[in-house]
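Task: complex structure prediction.
Instruction: return structure tokens for all chains below.
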Amino acid sequence: MKPILLQGHERSITQIKYNREGDLLFTVAKDPIVNVWYSVNGERLGTYMGHTGAVWCVDADWDTKHVLTGSADNSCRLWDCETGKQLALLKTNSAVRTCGFDFGGNIIMFSTDKQMGYQCFVSFFDLRDPSQIDNNEPYMKIPCNDSKITSAVWGPLGECIIAGHESGELNQYSAKRSGRAAPSLPLHSSPCPTSPRKALFTDFPPAFSLQLFDSTTLEHQKTFRTERPVNSAALSPNYDHVVLGGGQEAMDVTTTSTRIGKFEARFFHLAFEEEFGRVKGHFGPINSVAFHPDGKSYSSGGEDGYVRIHYFDPQYFEFEFEA
Amino acid sequence: MQDAENVAVPEAAEERAEPGQQQPAAEPPPAEGLLRPAGPGAPEAAGTKASSEEVGVAEAGPELEGEAPGEQARDERSDSRAQAASEDAGGNEGRAAEAEPRALENGDADEPSFSDPEDFVDDVSEEELLGDVLKDRPQEADGIDSVIVVDNVPQVGPDRLEKLKNVIHKIFSKFGKITNDFYPEEDGKTKGYIFLEYASPAHAVDAVKNADGYKLDKQHTFRVNLFTDFDKYMTISDEWDIPEKQPFKDLGNLRYWLEEAECRDQYSVIFESGDRTSIFWNDVKDPVSIEERARWTETYVRWSPKGTYLATFHQRGIALWGGEKFKQIQRFSHQGVQLIDFSPCERYLVTFSPLMDTQDDPQAIIIWDILTGHKKRGFHCESSAHWPIFKWSHDGKFFARMTLDTLSIYETPSMGLLDKKSLKISGIKDFSWSPGGNIIAFWVPEDKDIPARVTLMQLPTRQEIRVRNLFNVVDCKLHWQKNGDYLCVKVDRTPKGTQGVVTNFEIFRMREKQVPVDVVEMKETIIAFAWEPNGSKFAVLHGEAPRISVSFYHVKNNGKIELIKMFDKQQANTIFWSPQGQFVVLAGLRSMNGALAFVDTSDCTVMNIAEHYMASDVEWDPTGRYVVTSVSWWSHKVDNAYWLWTFQGRLLQKNNKDRFCQLLWRPRPPTLLSQEQIKQIKKDLKKYSKIFEQKDRLSQSKASKELVERRRTMMEDFRKYRKMAQELYMEQKNERLELRGGVDTDELDSNVDDWEEETIEFFVTEEIIPLGNQE
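Output:
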């Protein structure tokens, strides 16, 4: 089916995210605009205006009341989803790279870049205690001395966050007031987290692959090999499928044609690690992919600044591996 | 026993044993013996004692034959011990009694005196003792090195001697100052040879090099030699010695790969930018690795024409590998070698190196004998631009090279010029051997009024079997059909009165009397031309991009050349015929993005159109069953891989290899089947194909069974893992409910009761645009 093309950004897309029900799609890019769209037809519902720099990350809580964004303008902002009103402005010393609501929607987390002489920190705020927001005083702030966090997601039940570092390490940080917890894993490159269910992904450049880990034990489960870097991945909610987005590195794109870059979304079977489909369309690497919670469509945001919503053809649902 | 003793016991030991038994005080010391009992009495006893010890040792010798060297070493040690003891005793007669027990107690007296006894007679020559030092002793130059002998000098009487001397002086003083000369005479006439002495040996060497073979007049050609060479030539035996037989080295069956049960072919793959080289069996499913080595070659590899050897390139030369385990078979040392070429018979190897060439020792190109590893001949070479410089005849009997206005043909195994002279062909531009007989084709361009000419010459008779004159020629290219049945000369012409270049294909039918020629003319630009191997068809790519067409022609028995089919709008710049003919792959390599068209020329149908993006190479396997397209790291830095296709263009495998460089099929030697047998096989093809089809089905179902099996186990593991994860997830249900204020959000519709209906209107703007004023 023809994809729905969302043209709401002037710069490369950094992250896209569905809300829990999947009726809304939030997109952020390297411009200061935060967009929200109807996922059903791609109509833009509205924008959240206020940021003054590239927006790196976005998240919505489970009942889609609040939206959280983190930006390179050294701030993390909390918005009222419906009205677009800015509820809180949390100033930071460096760019906010990742942010997220916990399972219950009461605790927010964000991590900052190691930049301009400042450390990389993970900060936790409890929204139930307004003084924390008012005074910009997180109940917990964990410094990460070695390597900055490039991506982070909440673990199940909001007990901890799982963070991937620039060095390729994967760590769990407890959200309770005790600091770092659980095992750390030496890996190879920037992990890109997704999936509310139970998995984490990392991209691993010498061989260009995607790896799947258990979110509780951080045990390695699966490896999906590609011949291009992987920037993002998402698990299907109702099939054993995983979609990978990536392609030739952005810095090399101008010197390579679209065909060499392989800017395609690639579908793998979760258990067999075998590729079974590809979707072309972007003319730059794909930076973020997300599955609709009903599993009938998925979206991708690319370096080319476009977001594409794809509804699957009937063949997709009929396809089965011989086993 | 006596015999054995003679063999194993050193002679000296026996002799040494004597003095003890015979009381040899007065006797002269044995010639070779190192033991010298000098005086009577005490020293004698010492000597006796010591030597009897040795006898014991020496006698043990024959019983321990296997350890002879060790035994000898021990002998020597006791020799010196005995010597030291005796010398000690002899030198100090007064203290002889003292010396004795010391010598007896322990052979190696702690402070031996090295001075000789007074009546000591030296029986060892200086050369024997320090020959190695004496060799370097400064010596007087006897001047003999500077003397040369000149033969074939005219024999003259005293009246003309002065004149001769003047002439000789004039010739030979060019190489240096002549300090002395000698004209031996007999019966008043010179003997016909003379001696000249130069101021330095270097001059003499120079004179030999340059004046040897100097033609004084018709009767007299000088032969010049160094005087010192006389010894060398004198010692050469008049009898011919049979060279020693070299032990036979069993290399195993070098053609074992042809006996493979499945008739699979092999290929070599270079990858990781040249660091690793692998040999694979080609298999429909997956390539089967036979051998993989790191840094096997420094640049690339080559197979010999019949596939027996694999040649690897190294800074110091070429190595050939073969046999089942790819063991090294031969090495050819040629510093900085860059290019090689095998003779078609696999007997000779031609190597080229830009280094090492010197004026008097040609080494740029070396021809080697592959079986013996010996260098057969070296050649000079100015430029390697048109490799191979030497072109071989199909049977390896001759090889030829072209230089300015000459064509030199050499023969094997002598490596000498055929009939001792080159062919003078002024203006020769290019030549080529027929692959089906010892016929050479060459062409010369127009020269003023003389038209351009293509000549076919039979060898070794040098008979011109066909000459064809051509006019207004710009360039010619010689294309032989693989069996030598046809020759196509592609002639680019600029006919008078027309603009631009017209191409003529002049087709020579070699198998017919008088070699008739037919012509096909084309006005378009020719991109590529190729003969069908084993057939009478040829393909031509012509036109300008993007309007490129391919035409297939057929040379009929009556000589008519018929256009079978033309396809236009092709994306191709190269033609690759299957080695068995009939099938052809048209490829648009590199700049044309790797477009591929698989054509069956028997009915001229395009079987498949495909693409291997950015492909740089196409290689047919030697049987014509498979074809490989590849993207080489040498031409393109990403997506380096080789893909395997059937001859029909069905993609079988995509093999991605890190920094893949080159794939080469191992060639097969020509078939041993006769024409009749091949015909018979073709007739019975149905019978065979049934067997093969069954085999294929079996292996296919086996493969899919394996795959299904593998997937099943993976799925099972995965299910187990998921079940575990889900159980954990269910356990946490209450916690989840608690966290979200009692709302069940596990499924999208699990909290249906809480849903509020919300109607959203999507605004669709409708705009009516009138379609102009048609009234």
